[in-house]
Amino acid sequence: MDIVIYEEDSKQRSHLKNVIQRAAPPKSDVADFNNSDVLLEYIDKKDSSVAFISLEDERGRGYLLARKVKERFPRTNLIFLSRNQMYMKEALKLRYSGYISSPTITKEIIQDELNNLRYL
Amino acid sequence: MNIIAADDEKLVLDGMVEAIKKVEPSAEVYAFTDPDELLKFAQNTVCDVAFLDIEMGHISGIEVAKQLKQLNPRINIIFATGYSEYMGIGMKMHVSGYLLKPVSCEDVRDELDNLRNPIEKVKTDSGKPVVKCFGNFDIFVKGKSLNFERSKSRELLAYLVDRRGSAVTSGELRAVLWENAEDEKSTSNYLQQVKKDLITTLKKEGISNILVTSWNKYAIDVDAIECDYYDYLNNKPEGVRAYNGEYMSQYSWGEFFKA
């Protein structure tokens, strides 16, 4: 399984990558980004099946990135992260695979999302 | 496609049903104002989509959705709410979508075109009956679930499907269908009645050929049916998509083996 992460906060990004690596099936590739253009190029090359995207930034960069991912790679599973349920209504329109609003992200939460992907 | 529509306000429910029927005229739409009746219905009828109000009187739409998912993990839940603040409730359940009331035809169309668990078109082209093993076991002829007089008849058929064409004796069937029974004579009698019901029902539907019988042995003709489990074992994409982690859920003997 090829997984990408978009999170602008470096500490959060590192934690997320760690949890996802532990939760993902064996031999999964997990790549993390804080730059949307680089992430999009990566998905294009690797045909990533899952994108964890943080919606926490106030300027909506995460949401705008998700929109681009949806346009270019419609079958990439979008899993949003936002403790405050930011951009919830907008995210719904993107037919996300999952939306994690829990303040603490655990291996079990990630596994639940990976076991219930919208697009196989 | 079987669709449930539920709202405790009849006027709102009628509007929802009207929109669904306009958009999907071939669907069977079952409308409920009472969640208890809805749940009772869902125990006997496999439903593909459920449009649910988030608040349904004494029971929340979330609770109804949870129970529906237990009956059929692949059911597509679509919550309808009058409050945009409630959109997103139940997102942990991986619902298919949300609608703001009053529901429009465009919204319904959009949801049905983007179901989380797309409905596999029931394969009527081949003319073969379609057997579903993932989730609850069921058999469909021309898109309709077969009705047996006895529930054990369905279970017998399920067991033969599980055996994948291997012949099964009466003794084995008795042991499986009545695992704790001690009285061999009465279970033999019951088995005769169950077999008779199975054969009669299959004959009535014109699909007797799926059952292969010889002296005291019974088997399914694997080539005479379409089956999600067999598709999975043969690595067909439709079989892989159909797999949801549950196999013949209603039977305690059902164990899913990966080839």
What does this structure look like?
The complex is a heterodimer of chains A (120) and B (259). In chain A, 42% of the residues lie in helices and 19% in strands. Chain A has 120 residues and is of the alpha/beta class. Chain A has a single domain, classed as Rossmann fold (3-Layer(aba) Sandwich). Chain A has a five-stranded parallel beta sheet, sandwiched between helices. In chain A, α1 (10-23) packs across α5. Chain A is globular and about 35 Å long. Chain B is an alpha/beta fold. Chain B folds into two domains: 2-113, Rossmann fold, CATH 3.40.50.2300; 130-242, Winged helix-like DNA-binding domain superfamily/Winged helix DNA-binding domain (Arc Repressor Mutant, subunit A, Orthogonal Bundle), CATH 1.10.10. In chain B, 37% of the residues lie in helices and 19% in strands. Chain B has nine helices and 14 strands. Chain B has a five-stranded parallel beta sheet with strand order 2-1-3-6-7, with helices on both faces. In chain B, α1 (10-23) crosses α4 (105-113) and α5 (151-162) crosses α7. The longest helix of chain B has 21 residues, at 184-204. The model of chain B has no long low-confidence stretch (mean pLDDT 87). The A-B interface holds A 85, 88-89, 92, 95, 97-99, 101, 112, 115-116, 118, 120 and B 84, 87-88, 91-92, 94, 97-98, 114, 116, 240-241, 245.
